Amino acid sequence: MKSNKLLKLFISLFFILSCISCNRLSKDLHDGTFVGTGRGHNGIIEVEILVENGKITEAKIINDHEASEISSKAKDHILAAFLKDQSTSMLDVVSGASITSNGLLDALDMALAKAQGYETTTVTYHDTSCDIVIIGAGNAGLTAATEAARNGANVIVLEKMDTVGGNSRFSTGGLNAAYTKEQERLGIKDSKTSFFNDTMKGGKYMNDPALVHKLVDESAGIVEWLQQPFIGADLSDVGIFGGSSHKRAHRPKGGGAIGAHLVPLLSKAAVENGAEIRLNNKVIDIIEENGAAVGVTVSYSGGKYNIRSRAVIIASGGFAANPDMVVMYQAALAGFGTTNHKGATGDAFAMVKKFDAELTQMEYIQIHPTVSTSTGIMVTEAVIGNGAILVNKSGKRFVNENETRDIVSAAILKGPGKIAFIVFDQKVRESLKAIEGYAEAGMLIQGATLTELAGKLGINETVLEESLNKYNKFQAEGKDEDFGRNPNSMNHQLSRAPFYAIEVAPAIHHTMGGLKINPNAQVMRKNGNPIPGLYAAGEVTGGIHGAERLGGNAVADVCIFGKIAADSALKSLKK
Ligand code: MEZ
């Protein structure tokens, strides 16, 4: 392996692990002034940060050309939030000024990386060629890269961010799969039919059934594949998310975060098998010849260059972090925050116009019901899957917590203050490692008794106690008389002190529409034919999830279709 690849891998892994462990870039900062640059609407944005005694004490723009009132407001907002958070990792782009916001965030990231002792790239890239170019190093891209490189293709992965992982870095959930060895070992009776039906029902039957069949049929196989020694994942724990009839969300032992687990393993496997991952390299165009995709144009700090390739796989993610695009497709979502990383801006959609590629179901945008109001960190549905309940500001349950996200979110937004509390006990906490991350981030409100917890939440203690007692009775009887919650998600009595709560509200989580693909992950033209040389996988595609995605189906989707895209591209190389 070349030494610059090793260095890049190390840097990536560091960023991933530090981001995931506390959702903040937490490495010590060196004192001094550090400059970073990013590309805004009208050119380069240059920032300078001042670090004193390990803290960022000043952040200012020293050069930019973004003059509009909205962009000025966006810049002020981002700089203030950056100083408060000492990080960019949880900052959102500002609606109406997404390009300026992204440029500024990129510049701050570069300055921060320098303050942490990492020099940004001094590599110069030239025009080159390879077998397969992959756009995006999230889990779909990394899976495709691993599969393609392992089967002998010469692969270059282009990632516009300074780290691999995309949204998968923040995925605490799991990978839905049915009829797996893990389920069998745990005595879970599931079937492919049930997985198919749940996914279609969750998607309001708007899903493309052929893609859902593929997802379901390949699901047990991908769990096996990820656990093979060349990747080495552990998917031995199996939980449940909203809308699933059975426990089928595969994740590491103890209920650990799936993204934190898979991203480093997949990036290591991709590189070890010979794929090259180029960070801070943004694809700005897909090259077309006679209607086929034959390469990409890339922009990086040193300029632009072209890569000719025999296949292009788009794995660049969705657009939940692009408020303008979100609002263009769903005006009702104006002003909502997002759980997504700031790179999820949907850049690929403009690049495929010249191919006459079909976009499908762009208006289906999911909001996740349980995002911490204090930190903006998404609280995984696994907390509910492992037995927590939701109560409103009056201390009452108000919904089947294990319903699909649209239903739970709508119920929260209808309630007082448009917030809810996830309430659970010590036993739930011990059942799910992911909760320790929330404890570290200071999100848990704790009471030695229910009375104490109620006091801290400003809720009448008798009402809260009644809610838990009633739920415990339903749990013991295996039937939720009030809301019909699936007993498979009512694991045990909520009775072991201390008790905990997290205040939550909905935020934009997943864009379910995107490029129309066929079951071979070929991108489809509006005329119904596949576009030669062009493949896609993950959140950039549409149709798999229909109108509402089930929790745990995204990780399955990105891994399964990432691998399929690679297999289809590999097949085309043989022609
Ligand atoms: O698939 C997801 O989006 C998921 C399981 C999220 C979560 O609540 O952890």
Structure overview:
Strand 11 (292-300) and strand 12 (303-314) form a beta hairpin. The longest helix is centred in the C-terminal third of the chain and has 21 residues, at 553-573. The protein has helices spanning 3-22, 69-85, 98-115, 139-150, 181-185, 192-202, 209-226, 258-272, 323-329, 348-351, 382-385, 405-414, 426-431, 434-440, 450-457, 461-477, 553-573; strands spanning 32-39, 44-52, 55-63, 128-135, 155-158, 175-176, 237-239, 249-251, 276-278, 282-289, 292-300, 303-314, 359-360, 365-372, 389-391, 420-425, 445-447, 499-511, 514-516, 522-524, 530-536, 541-542. It contains 17 helices and 22 strands. The protein is of the alpha+beta class and 575 residues long. The chain folds into 3 domains: 2-115, Alpha-Beta Complex (Sufe protein. Chain: A); 128-364 and 512-573, FAD/NAD(P)-binding domain; 366-508, Flavocytochrome C3, Chain A, domain 1 (Alpha-Beta Complex), CATH 3.90.700. Mean pLDDT is 91; it is low at 1-26. Strands 4, 5, 9, 10, 11, 12, 20 and 21 form an 8-stranded mixed β-sheet that branches. Strands 14, 15, 16, 17 and 18 form a 5-stranded antiparallel β-sheet that branches. (2E)-2-methylbut-2-enedioic acid (MEZ) is lined by residues 172-173, 241, 380-382, 551-552, 554. The site of (2E)-2-methylbut-2-enedioic acid has 9 residues, from loops.
